[in-house]
Model the fold of this input.
Amino acid sequence: MISINSSEEKPLLYGEQNAENVDSEQQPYVVHYPHHGYRSYKWRWFVLATLSVANTSNGMIWISMSTVSNYAADYYEVSLSAINWLSVIFFILTIILGLPAIYILNIYGLKVSLLLATWLNALGQLVRVLSQFDTTWGFTMVMVGQSLAACAQPFLIFMPVQVAEEWFPDGQRTTATTVASTGISVGILLASSICPVLVSHHSQIPLLNEVIMVPAAVAVLMATFGIRSDCPPTPPSSSAAAESANVQPFMQGIKEVMHNRCYVLLVLSAGAGYAIFTALLTLLIQILCPMGYTDVRPYM
Done:
């Protein structure tokens, strides 16, 4: 519930409470704003674009080596199973870091989380680029770089809802969430289309890493110099103001959803479908190339 106080000349900053006007039984669920105090800022589109570019870059890093697994194995002088681990490490670290990422996002906010994610993503890809200069530890460096980028993924996949909630009015939240969430899918599509075209010989693997470095660098520059706050000075809607005040303790929220049977069923069913999809995506080249397909055709 939001109380309107006509005598208040200046709105509180987004997320602050007016303790003098809040009933003790309603704390901390009431926040005061003057009438017509809600505002949508054009800068919200830059925030959305930054997150979308970061997700796209992360998706490209994740799947790029799997699209040219045969050439990658030859270049780094490892087995195909070792190349598959470059994709599998994303799943492992996303599961391990999922809850910590949600905690950091809730406690430290959008700005810190986005900066952390984009820098991890960019540093990971930079390590992959530098792997071409060390023939002895080349694959080890690629795995380290891939792991750094994988640590960024849980932050990036959980941020779209928060960006939509804190920066966009009610009528644009679905669009904002969809645009940001599809970034990883766009990255997978781009990597699946571009990488097999770029790499026709194992000696071209460094070129692949350099090309994928571009969106990672763009994302970290956008986040570092463009993201100045977790949320706008005033909320975009009444629901955003109410949700900023109604902050549930982290562990309490986890307990509630884990006792929700419908939620658990949704997690299991959606997780199983996503697992099948990513497994096929990772192994598609290795499944179809022995049947006479080239590296390009399976993804087309």
